[in-house]
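Regression check, S-adenosylmethionine case 356:
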Amino acid sequence: MAIHGIQARARRQIASGPRFTTVKMTSRGGIQITLTTTFSDNAEAGARALPGYVDEVIEGLSTAEKTLPCKLFYDERGSGLFDQICELDEYYVTRTENALMGAHAGEMAEAIGPGCLLIEYGAGSSTKIRSLLDHLRDPAAFVPVDISGEHLVRAADELKASYPDVEINPLVADFTGSFDVPAPLIEPARSVVYFPGSTIGNFAPGDASKLLKTIAERVGLGGGLLIGVDLDKDPDVLHAAYNDRKGVTAAFNLNLLVRLNREAGADFNLSCFTHRAAYNPESSRIEMRLYSDRRQTAQIAGHRFDFDMGESILTEYSHKYTIESFGRIAAEAGFQTRQVWTDADGLFSVQYLELD
Ligand SMILES: C[S@@+](CC[C@H](N)C(=O)[O-])C[C@H]1O[C@@H](n2cnc3c(N)ncnc32)[C@H](O)[C@@H]1O
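Current build output:
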């Protein structure tokens, strides 16, 4: 399919927009009358306070190369779109990591040991943790952490139904900030962070190392980190994975602007931005951007941003590592690599690290 066809499909996917459903109960007989009205996104946002992330957005759009924080991808719709990406043929990441978890979760559980407090960073739909929970011996508790609240709570409810004997305490938080993990009822033998999905790849190496340091502080001496790390590979494979034929990644990327229009009263013209992801071999990373199809202006919270034709907004990095290059970043944070599991094609790795 031509790129324009893909983008058009992506736009149709996101144009379904918010609808407000008013449910009225009559005083007699409890009959429900449902009125459905579609409001303009901007009118709705104008009536509300601006979300807390707006300063960060304005700062990012004010730099020489315009950027937006990738954590903003994950509103309710963005999390759903990410789940669709995980199902794509081209997106080897989830398929390969799932297979590694399925094949080696017993060894991972053995490395972690009994009685741990397990904290998952960026838990999303909490699917990969199931392999581990099937093998862990007497975990003290499981704390899935995610910024996408509704999605997290729904996934945690499903997990609680599957693992009624495990204490599960979902926590809506930004893992780049400070947050307290609820103490489990049982005293844990150690703390271990599980960080799948190669979400660490979204951080430039210096920031990744800083984030790993905060994880090191959280788990303390004797604590561990089980982390999914995507490996460097054929750029064609990477290009296909981040520019899928169905346009789901394009919809995911554009949803960021949809969210800003809806929640922050911005006025990005959605039909004038195009998704594209390219591999940067010097930095070993995929760079995902939204390109302005014309000269245009967008405003958000009283700030005006001019776009030249072809100018882009950088929305996400996805760094690719070798076992050695990731080991160096982990070592800067004080972690030692204990065990590494990879697939036969060397696409992806799951690594167990400990603090000495
Ligand atoms: C690439 S997805 C991975 C999801 C899932 N762990 C997996 O492996 O398929 C990244 C996840 O991290 C969450 N996330 C991204 N940035 C975050 C942040 N700063 N704080 C908390 N959660 C974040 C997103 O909401 C999303 O669920």
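Comparison notes: Residues 71, 74, 79, 82, 86, 94, 122-124, 128, 145-148, 174-176, 196-197, 199 surround S-adenosylmethionine (CB under 6 Å). Residues 92-112 form the longest helix (21 residues). No diff flagged against the previous build.
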